[in-house]
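Re: weekly structure request thread

Next one in the queue (245 aa):
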Amino acid sequence: MNATIDLMKAHRSIRKFSDREVDEKTLKAIVAAAQCAATSHFVQAYTVIRVGDREKRKAIADLAGPQVWVEQAPVFLVFCADLNRLESACRLHDTTMEKGWAEQFVTATVDTALLAQNVLLAAESEGLGGVFIGGIRNDPQTVCDLLKIPDQVYPVFGMCLGYPAHDPPPKPRLPVEAVLFDDRYPQEHDLAMLDEYDRVTNYYYLNRNSNLRDETWTAQMADFMGKVIRPHMKEFLEKKGFFLK
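Done, posted below.
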């Protein structure tokens, strides 16, 4: 349809990178462009930490999986939902910031996700590739300790960036008819459509370049959603000053 939509539809996760470095000017231009993402009430409730220290990279890679690409990528970023800066703004005006509200948590998390998606899209427009690393939430307190992340800030996810050294095919998404509806939520989901999507995803998994497996989307989701994932997150967020009210 146009170059932007073509770029978005060509997205795939990159976990193998060439030795080519990402220069400082390019990285800063990518982040500056990403900051133009929408932000609720203009709060810009995010901070990005570039992790260059090899020992910290190794520790984060291990707790995240292990995921060796966290160590190997030319750039590794940690995206933080950040209310700490806003508290500083309140102090400049002798105002006490309200803390611990669920809406603040949602606002900061959404702001951070919007920024990060823009970072990856801008990076892809420059010929880079990357992958989100949600695995840092396996042990978010250790990440906070390593990166000196204070209260009112939490690490949402990481991102590896660099010039791709492989070319995996894009992973097929649900058909738009399964996610776009008019005026109301559907009374029931189209199981025939999900069954067809299972055939599409199964073909993808059986024919991709690496990590071949005989799997479908619904079976994968049933397995994932049938488990308790990261049960420590609520207690961790409360300790960081989030989600108390």
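The first strand starts at residue 46 and ends at 50. The chain has one domain: 3-170+230-239.
Next request, please.
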